[in-house]
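Lab notebook, bench 4. Continuing the backlog of folding jobs that were queued last week. Each job is logged with the same field layout so the records can be merged later without manual cleanup. Today's entry covers Related to ABC transporter, ATP-binding protein, a 167-residue chain. Filled in by technician R.K.

JOB TYPE: sequence-to-structure
TARGET: Related to ABC transporter, ATP-binding protein
LENGTH: 167
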Amino acid sequence: MASKRFSTHTTSNASPVGKALASIWKRSLLPLSTPSKRISSTFLKSGPFLGSRFNKLSMGQQNRVNLIRYLLQDFDLLILDESLANVDEKLRQTIIVHIKEIFPEKMFLYISHNLMEVSSFCDEIMVFGANNEKKHYRVIEGQNCQLNREVDKRKRDVTMLEVMNSF
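JOB STATUS: finished
OUTPUT FIELD FOLLOWS
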């Protein structure tokens, strides 16, 4: 019951998404000259859903709106737990690369089951597993793809194999 109240309150079902995001932007701690301007131009310009009510959006559109809301807040660490799971692959890659460009000094904990995506875009990958040894996790170097830079597919494949064979 509590989660329903939280989602109703924070997603602003009563007003169009664009108005709700504008209200959050005005209340946010970020001045207009900081990343908030870039967030709006990167994520909102292709948002034909801004005039819609939140509960009428697809899951992928809802995920994008929620991500924008989180990025408009001041943060040091943002945990993205399958936050882009319902967003198509090409758009998901665009969003990840732009977030990394807009917030180079911020820390993101990106949780995903998409091995190719994690191997391509993360700089460090922490793989958890149960075994009989003391250490139940392993850190693997990712390919850390940046804007306007292609991923070396061979290196990415090696990273993916390392992750799959961690335990």
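OBSERVATION: The longest strand covers residues 77-81.
SIGNED: R.K.
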